[in-house]
Amino acid sequence: MNDPLVIAHRGYSARYTENTQLAYLGAIDIGADIVESDARLSSDGFVFACHDGTLSRIAGDARGVADMTAAELQDVRLTTGERLSPLPRTLTDIAPLRPVLIDVKTPDLPLIEAIARDIRNCDALDKVWIGVRDLAQMQLAHALLPAVRLLAFLPDYTRAEEFARAGAQAFRVWEGHLDQQAALRVVREKPTWITLGGKGTSFEVGDTTPDRLARVLALRPRGVLLNDPALMTGPAAPARSTEAT
């Protein structure tokens, strides 16, 4: 069996500011197979990479992303000095180098339509994954872009078949849920990407230790989402075979 894909959660976010071009390029430099980028919609219909609904944590700005125009978002300086990344820039600069996982953060259909527009305009159909939590969004993404690769961030592990019928080609499971029978069934039966840390653990999403990572890898998932790709690609990581993405 091939080694699991190394998926850089918000880019190389253990070292660089999350969801920035530096984090994405750093992930590529360290050997990540896929770069994850969050996606939210501006008030005038443009997609930007931002995990939270507001800019408070990353920019000290209490405004909500959905309440701001693209021009306002482009003017924002993060606390570390970088700027927010519009999706077209990521698709133009990063997707030719590594596949980009677009993590859809809100359940609205216009966000899917805007993501599909950007993917088409940037000729990036074969260079992305779209990850969704909402079944209607997955159905729309599959209808708009039938060839696009879709990841189900399953809201309920018992719904894996429902999402598979809607077009899902991979399924996310939380590390902290691996003691649940429904989650383990997905791991055994479906192409599964495991997110480290977060729900059910005392760690931040994407954080881990070598011992915890080893326990996850023993389950032979198809992919692992983590903040520090070097744990799987660096000098101290186990040797990996090459897998096409």
Account of the protein in words:
- With 245 residues, this protein is an alpha/beta fold.
- It has a domain at 5-37 and 98-233: Phosphatidylinositol (PI) phosphodiesterase (TIM Barrel, Alpha-Beta Barrel), CATH 3.20.20.
- Helices cover 31% and strands 21% of the residues.
- It contains ten helices and twelve strands.
- The protein has helices at 21-30, 56-59, 70-75, 87-93, 109-121, 135-144, 160-165, 181-189, 210-217, 230-233, and strands at residues 5-8, 34-41, 47-49, 54-55, 61-64, 85-86, 100-104, 128-132, 149-153, 170-174, 192-195, 223-226.
- It has an eight-stranded parallel beta barrel with strand order 1-2-7-8-9-10-11-12, surrounded by five helices. A two-stranded antiparallel ribbon has the order 4-5.
- Helix 5 (109-121) runs parallel beside helix 6 (135-144).
- The longest helix is centred in the middle third of the chain and has 13 residues, at 109-121.
- It is globular.
- The two termini are 15 Å apart.
List keywords for this structure.
single chain; 245 residues; alpha/beta; TIM Barrel; eight-stranded parallel β-barrel; two-stranded antiparallel sheet; 12 strands
Q: Any chance you could write out the topology, listing elements then pairs?
A:
Elements: E1 5-8, H1 21-30, E2 34-41, E3 47-49, E4 54-55, H2 56-59, E5 61-64, H3 70-75, E6 85-86, H4 87-93, E7 100-104, H5 109-121, E8 128-132, H6 135-144, E9 149-153, H7 160-165, E10 170-174, H8 181-189, E11 192-195, H9 210-217, E12 223-226, H10 230-233
Parallel strand pairs: 1-2, 1-12, 2-7, 7-8, 8-9, 9-10, 10-11, 11-12
Antiparallel strand pairs: 2-3, 3-6, 4-5
Helix pairs in contact: 5-6
